[in-house]
Design goal:
By secondary structure, the chain is of the alpha+beta class. The protein has a domain of about 180 residues: Peroxisomal Thiolase, Chain A, domain 1, CATH 3.40.47.10. The protein is built from 13 helices and twelve strands. Strands 1, 2, 3, 4, 5, 8, 9, 10, 11 and 12 form a ten-stranded mixed beta sheet that branches. A two-stranded antiparallel sheet has the order 6-7. The termini are far apart.
Length: about 400
C-alpha cells in the first residue's frame, strides 16, 4: 500500500574538542570508542525529553575500523552509552564522509518510516590508527591503470588540483588558510564554538589526568609569511603544505535525527530540516573536486540553484579543494557565507567524524541568520568522491523572503 515519506529533522549535534594525533596529542592514551560514547551520552543528557527506548538506531562511522574503532562500533557505542539492548547499531565507512553518510543513511530510514529517531556520528583516532593502517589495496587498481597512483595519497591529489586549475595558486590557498585560522579564533573569542563541545577527561601514564575543553590544532595568529616558508611534502616546489591543509587529528561527533512527527510528539527541538543529499564519484586523482558535482546533483534533486544557498559549511581538507568549489560556482574566496567560524584547516579533521561538525555548525548559523532559508554542507572524499547535503532553516519565514526581495 502507498506510504507517505516522513520529513527528517536535525535535532542536535555535539562533538569532542579535536586533538592533534600522535603521542603529544591530548588523546594519545584515550580510546577512540570512548570519544564517541562521550558524544552519544551528551546528546541523551541534553534531551531528557527523549526516552532512551525511542532511539531506534545508532550509526557510527570510522575510516580505519580496527582495534578500538572496530567491532560494529554503532552497536558497541549504543550499549556503552546506556541505550537499551533493544537499540541496534552499525558501523559505516565512506572515508572522510563517514559521519555525513551515517546521517544520510539513518535519515533515509526515517524518511521511509522504518524508524523515527536515530543517532548518527563518527570517530577517528588518527594517532592510534593512521589512515591506511592495515589496508591491502588490490594492485590491479594501479597496475591496470584504473587510477593514477597519486590517487592513493590525498596530499598528491591536492597537488593535482593545483595543476588542473592554475588559477588556484599557493598564495590563494595560504590566504584562505590564514582566514580560516582568524575566523575560528574570533568564533572562540565570541563563545560561539564552546556550546557544542563535550569536555573529555583524559589520562596519560606520564602526564596524568587532564580535561579537554577546546580544540588543540588551531594556530591563531598564523601569517602569510609563516605559511610561505613551510615545506611542500607532497612535491618539490609544490603548493600543498601543513599550513593550507587539515592536519592529522583525533575526535568524535554525534547528532540526533528524527521524523518531524516524532520531534513534535516528544517536544524535541527542530534545528534543521533535511532537503536533499547526493554522493558522486569523480576521478580519484583529483578527489578534491568531488563536492562540485555532488552539490550540483543535490541542488537539482531539490529544484534549487546555487543562488538559493545562503550559508556554506565546506570541509577544508585542503584549501585548494575549497577554492576549486568556490571558483566553479562564482563565489569569492572571502565570501562571508562560507565557513563563518573557519574550517578544518584550523579546527582539525578527524576524518570520519567531520560531517557532523559541519552540520552542527550550520544549525548554529541558521539560528543567527533567519534571513537565510537554505544551507549546504559538503566535503570531498578519498578515492574520488564528493558528498553534499542541503538543509532548510526552520527559523526562516516568508516575511524574510519579502524583505530580501
Amino acid at each position: 500500500m502507498p506510504r507517505e515519506l516522513q520529513e527528517v529533522v536535525f535535532v542536535d549535534g555535539v562533538r569532542t574538542p579535536f586533538g592533534k594525533a600522535g603521542e603529544k596529542g591530548m588523546y594519545a592514551q584515550t580510546r577512540a570508542d570512548d570519544l564517541v560514547i562521550k558524544c552519544v551520552r551528551e546528546l541523551l543528557r541534553r534531551h531528557p525529553e527523549l526516552p532512551k527506548e525511542r532511539v531506534e538506531e545508532v550509526a557510527i562511522a570510522a575510516t580505519t575500523q580496527i582495534g578500538d574503532q572496530g567491532l560494529t562500533l554503532g552497536r558497541l557505542a549504543g550499549l556503552l552509552s546506556g541505550l537499551p539492548t533493544t537499540t541496534p547499531g552499525y558501523s559505516i565507512d565512506r572515508m572522510c564522509a563517514g559521519a555525513m553518510t551515517a546521517v544520510t543513511t539513518v535519515s533515509s530510514a526515517i524518511g521511509v518510516g522504518a524508524i523515527d529517531v536515530a543517532i548518527a556520528g563518527g570517530v577517528e583516532h588518527m594517532g592510534r590508527h593512521p589512515m591506511g593502517e592495515g589496508v591491502d589495496p588490490n594492485p590491479r587498481i594501479v597496475a591496470e591503470r584504473l587510477v593514477d597512483e597519486s590517487a592513493l595519497v590525498m596530499g598528491k591529489t591536492a597537488e593535482n588540483l593545483h595543476d588542473r586549475f592554475p588559477q588556484l595558486t599557493k598564495e590563494r590557498s595560504d590566504a584562505f588558510a590564514v582566514a580560516s585560522q582568524r575566523k575560528l579564533a574570533a568564533a572562540y573569542a565570541a563563545g560561539k564554538v564552546q556550546p557544542d563541545l563535550v569536555p573529555v577527561a583524559t589520562r596519560h601514564v606520564e602526564k596524568g589526568w587532564g580535561l579537554a575543553t577546546a580544540d588543540e590544532p588551531p594556530r591563531p595568529g598564523t601569517t602569510l609569511e609563516e605559511l610561505a616558508a613551510l615545506r611542500t611534502p607532497f612535491r618539490p616546489h609544490g603548493n600543498v603544505t601543513a599550513g593550507n591543509a587539515a592536519g592529522l587529528n583525533d575526535g568524535a561527533t554525534a547528532c540526533l535525527l528524527a521524523s518531524r512527527a516524532a520531534a513534535d510528539e516528544l517536544g524535541l527541538p527542530v534545528r534543521m530540516r533535511l532537503v536533499s543529499y547526493a554522493f558522486v564519484g569523480v576521478e580519484p586523482e583529483v578527489m578534491g573536486i568531488g563536492p562540485v558535482p555532488a552539490t550540483e546533483k543535490a541542488l537539482a534533486k531539490a529544484g534549487l540553484g546555487i543562488e538559493d544557498i545562503g550559508l556554506f559549511e565546506l570541509n577544508e581538507a585542503f584549501a585548494v579543494q575549497v577554492l576549486s568549489f568556490l571558483d566553479h560556482f562564482g563565489i569569492a574566496d572571502d565570501d562571508e557565507r562560507v565557513n563563518p567560524w573557519g574550517g578544518a584547516i584550523a579546527t582539525g579533521h578527524p576524518l570520519a567524524s567531520s560531517g557532523v561538525r559541519l552540520m552542527t555548525q550550520l544549525a548554529r548559523h541558521f539560528e543567527e541568520h533567519p534571513e537565510v532559508r537554505y544551507g549546504l554542507t559538503a566535503m570531498c572524499i578519498g578515492l574520488g568522491m564528493g558528498g553534499a547535503v542541503i538543509w532548510e532553516n526552520p527559523h526562516h519565514s516568508p516575511a524574510d523572503d519579502r524583505k530580501d526581495a
